[in-house]
Amino acid sequence: MSSQPTPIRRIITGHDSANKAKVLIDGPAQNIRGNRPGQFTTLMWCSDETPMDMAVGEDVEDMGARQLGTYPPVNGTRFMISEYPPGNHPTMHRTETVDYIIVLSGKIDMELDDGETVTMGPGDVMVQRGTNHAWINRYDEVCRMVFVLIDAKPLGFAEHLRSRENEHRQLNEGHKG
């Protein structure tokens, strides 16, 4: 099990003051967090709203440097790459988001409330709509996945393990989510 995540080259494009397309950032993604052995999440980008602001100019905020908890910003998005090691310690959880998920490498099982399990492998895509689930790597290699979380209206039928409002409040007060 690696104590470091696989490096990710992150390329961010934009426009100069003459409206010509250019690369603004090209280098290793640095916003990495890991709170379980061998399990890492690297934030690539986020947004505060949709539609997103794409201001012209070279002096733009690096939205991949933001400190976020699990949720995207309210009315925003969170784009990240996560790594799950073999034998990870899964946690059943739910977010009030619509998640676009793509497996890049490895295999992983997604378990739902009633024990129903779906196995995903390289190239598989999932749209997850606020369901309670756990990611379980029962295989021999790290599973690397892309997640795009999009803030959604609350489901209104169940208490969640983590509250979006509490997480945002804690981040604003300087606590980790």
Form type: globular
Residue share in helix = under 10%
- Structural Rg: 17 Å
Strand order of the largest sheet: 3-4-5-11-6-9
State which percent range the strand residues make up. 35-45%
Order of helices and strands: EEEEEEEEEEEH
CATH superfamily: Jelly Rolls
Query: Looking at CATH, which topology would you report?
Result: Jelly Rolls
Task: Characterize the largest beta sheet: strand count, sense, and whether it forms a barrel.
Answer: 6 strands, antiparallel
Ranges where pLDDT stays below 50 over 5 or more residues in a row are: none
Distance between the termini: 25 Å
Mean pLDDT, all residues: 89
Quick one: CATH class? Answer: Mainly Beta
Total number of domains: 1
CATH architecture assignment:
Sandwich
Number of helices: 1
Q: What is the structural class? A: mainly beta
**How many beta-strand elements?**
11
Description:
- The chain is mainly beta and 177 residues long.
- The chain has one domain (9-172): Jelly Rolls, CATH 2.60.120.
- The chain contains one helix and eleven strands, in the order E-E-E-E-E-E-E-E-E-E-E-H.
- The chain has one helix at residues 164-172, and strands spanning 9-15, 21-28, 32-36, 39-47, 77-84, 97-105, 108-112, 117-120, 125-129, 133-136, 143-151.
- The strands form three sheets. Strands 3-4-5-11-6-9 form a six-stranded antiparallel beta sheet, with no helix packed on it.
- Strand 3 and strand 4 form a beta hairpin.
- The chain is globular, with a radius of gyration of 17 Å.
